[in-house]
Design a protein that fits this description.
Helices cover 10% and strands 24% of the residues. The protein is mainly β. It has a domain at 63-191 and 201-212: Ribonuclease Inhibitor (Leucine-rich repeat, LRR (right-handed beta-alpha superhelix)). The strands form 4 sheets. A 15-stranded mixed sheet has the order 1-2-3-5-7-8-10-12-13-15-17-18-19-20-21, with no helix packed on it. A two-stranded parallel ribbon has the order 4-6. A hairpin with a 5-residue loop joins strand 1 (55-61) and strand 2. It comes from Pangasianodon hypophthalmus (Striped catfish). One of its GO terms (cellular component) is extracellular space. This is LRRNT domain-containing protein. Keywords: Leucine-rich repeat, Repeat, Signal.
C-alpha cells in the first residue's frame, strides 16, 4: 500500500546537498576575501601614489561619481618621513605627530599638494616655516599648526592663500602681527586661533589693509590690556584667561561688527570703567563670568549695548546690581548673575485698549531668585 523508498537514492541526495553546501561556503569565503582585499586597496596602497605607510581614502562626487578627491592620513610616521608623495587629487592631508621641525620651501611643493584644501601639521616640533613653504597650495582653506614650538612666522608665508581657518594655538608666540593674514583678495573671512600661547602683544599696522578676520581666539595668553584691533571686522572675540587688570572706556569702540565677546576667567580683572563697551551696537552675547576680583559694576558700564541679548556675570560681581542696569540693554533676553541666579525676559500680551484698537505688549523680566534687586 505504501511506496517503497530507495535508501541508495536518499544517500545520493544527502551527498549532493553536502557537496553543494561546501561549494557555497567556498564561494562566500572567496567573496569575503575579495571584498576585504578591495577595501584594503581602496584605503591603502591601492590608491595610485599612496605612500605604503599612509592611509588613503577616495571620496567620489557628482553625477555618476565623475569627480573624486582623496583624503590622505600620514600621521605618526616619525621623523624623516617628509616630503611624502601623495595622490594627484589629494584634498585633505594629515601630517601630524611626525616630529617635523622645519617646513621648507620644497616640502609641500610636489605633485598632489596643489589641490590641498586642508592641511594638518599639528603636534609636531615645528619651529620655523619658510616664507614660500605654502606657495603652491593655492586652494588651501584650512591650516592647522597647533601644538608646535613656533615663536614667529616668516613675512608673507600666508600670502596668496584663500585661507578660511588657521589654528596656531599652543605654540610659543610672544607677539603677533595680524597683518600676517592679509591674504589673496580677502574674499573669504578668516577664523584665527592664537589661544594658549605666550602673547603679551597683538597688533596690526594701521597703515596696511586690515585683515578680513571674523573670529579671533586669544584665550590663555599673557595680555595685560585689551589689544587694539580697530579696523578688523571681527564678529567673535575671546580674551578669556588673560592678565587684563582693567577694561578702559572705549577699549572696544571701533569693533562695531562684534556679535560675541568673551572676557571670562580673567584672574586680575578688578575694574570695568563706564562706557567700556561703547560702540558695540551689534553685540548680542557678553560673557563676564568667573572674574573673581570684579566686585562691583556701574550701570554705565553697559552704555551702548542696545542689541545685547545674553549677559553672563556668574561668579563675578558680589554686590547686587541696581534695576537701572537693564536700561542700557533694551534687547536683553537672558542674564546669568550667579550659579543659582538666572533672569529672563518674557513677552506678555497686555489688555485690549479700546481707543488704540489693539493690545499693548509688555516685556517682563523674571528672576528665579526672590528678592534680588533688578
Amino acid at each position: 500500500m505504501f511506496a517503497r523508498v530507495d535508501s541508495s537514492a536518499g544517500v545520493s541526495f544527502a551527498e549532493k546537498v553536502h557537496v553543494e553546501s561546501q561549494r557555497m561556503s567556498m564561494m562566500v569565503a572567496f567573496l569575503c576575501l575579495s571584498l576585504s582585499s578591495l577595501l584594503t586597496l581602496a584605503t591603502a596602497g591601492g590608491v595610485k601614489n599612496c605612500h605604503p605607510k599612509c592611509r588613503c581614502e577616495v571620496e567620489s562626487y557628482g553625477l555618476f561619481d565623475s569627480f573624486s578627491l582623496t583624503k590622505v592620513d600620514c600621521s605618526g610616521l616619525g621623523p624623516g618621513a617628509t616630503p611624502i608623495p601623495i595622490p594627484l587629487d589629494t584634498s585633505h592631508l594629515d601630517l601630524s605627530h611626525n616630529s617635523i621641525s622645519h617646513i621648507t620651501d620644497s616640502m609641500l611643493s610636489g605633485p598632489g599638494y596643489t589641490t590641498l584644501v586642508s592641511l594638518d601639521l599639528s603636534k609636531n616640533l615645528i619651529s620655523r616655516v619658510s616664507s614660500k613653504a605654502f606657495n603652491k597650495l593655492r586652494y588651501l582653506e584650512t591650516l592647522d599648526l597647533s601644538q608646535n614650538v613656533l615663536e614667529n612666522l616668516s613675512d608673507g608665508c600666508f600670502s596668496g592663500l584663500p585661507l578660511a581657518e588657521v589654528d596656531l594655538s599652543d605654540n610659543r608666540f610672544r607677539e603677533f602681527d595680524l597683518n600676517a593674514f592679509n591674504t589673496r583678495g580677502q574674499e573669504t573671512p578668516i577664523s584665527v586661533d592664537l589661544s594658549n600661547n605666550l602673547l603679551s602683544t597683538v597688533s596690526r599696522n594701521p597703515h596696511l589693509h586690515a585683515p578680513y578676520i571674523k573670529s579671533l581666539m586669544l584665550a590663555g595668553n599673557q595680555l595685560r590690556t585689551v589689544p587694539r584691533l580697530a579696523g578688523i571686522p571681527l564678529q567673535y572675540l575671546s580674551l578669556d584667561g588673560n592678565l587684563i587688570r582693567s577694561i578702559e572706556e572705549g577699549d572696544f569702540e571701533e569693533l562695531t561688527d562684534l556679535v560675541y565677546l568673551s572676557l571670562s576667567g580673567l584672574p586680575e580683572l578688578s575694574v570695568i570703567h563706564p562706557n567700556s563697551f561703547r560702540g558695540l551696537r551689534n553685540l548680542q552675547v557678553l560673557d563676564l563670568s568667573n572674574n573673581f576680583q570684579l566686585k562691583t559694576l556701574s550701570p554705565d558700564v553697559f552704555n551702548g549695548l542696545s542689541a545685547l541679548q545674553e549677559l553672563n556675570l556668574s561668579e563675578s560681581v558680589a554686590t547686587p546690581l541696581p534695576v537701572t542696569i537693564f536700561n542700557h540693554m533694551p534687547s536683553i533676553k537672558s542674564a546669568t548673575l550667579g550659579p543659582n541666579m538666572h533672569c529672563w525676559k518674557t513677552h506678555k500680551q497686555g489688555q485690549f485698549h479700546r481707543q488704540i484698537g489693539q493690545a499693548k505688549a509688555n516685556d517682563i523680566l523674571t528672576c528665579d531668585v526672590p528678592g534680588i534687586i533688578l
